Each structure stands twice: as structure tokens, then as C-alpha cells.
């Protein structure tokens, strides 16, 4: 969890990761292809943060509870020590600090990408 403690250090790692994608997979070394590689990294953070927001909003809790209850009723080899009602639901497993980290990284990388995209289209 020490990786998540400093958000600016992680932002530098993400920018370096986008440069790595750029130098490995870009057919030409220009600003357009760097913007594409930065999009791949920022898209990952935006999608994971949106998924975590949906999970944190208790959207999947009822479905998970229903599957656990159904499995307990239908199962032939019941484990009487397994307390399915006390298991944490998906919304309880999302930590707010990790969610904030993903949201911050996604927003900052997306704003940086949009800034580079505006500069790219101004220079054409």
C-alpha cells in the first residue's frame, strides 16, 4: 500500500508507463501517438474508478446476497461453519483511499491528455 500513499509519485510512474508504451508500440514518434499511449493508461484508471463507484454504490450487493443465499439452500454438501450471511458484500470491500487514488489518477491523466490533444490540434 506504500505505492498508493504518494499520488504524485504514482502519477510519475503512469507518465513513464505511457512513455514506455509510446516507445515500444508507436509506429512513428510524434505527439499524436504519445497522446494515444497516454489515453490507454488514463482509460484504464477511468474504467476501474467507474467500476469501483458502481460497486461502492451497492448496486451488486443484492445480487451477491441472493446468489449466496441460493447457493446455501441448494447445496447438497453444506458447510455449517461457513456463515454466508456474515461475509462482506462487494460494497464493503472497496476502500475509499484506493477509490480516491484511481479517480485522481484518471482525472489528472485525462486532463493532461486533453491538454496535449488541444495543443496538437492548435498546431495543425
Automatic annotation (TrEMBL):
The chain crosses the membrane at residues 7-26, 38-59, 102-121. InterPro entries: DUF3899 (IPR025007). Keywords: Membrane, Transmembrane, Transmembrane helix. Pfam families: DUF3899. Residues 35-117 form the DUF3899 domain. It comes from the Bacteria. This is DUF3899 domain-containing protein. It comes from Pontibacillus yanchengensis Y32.
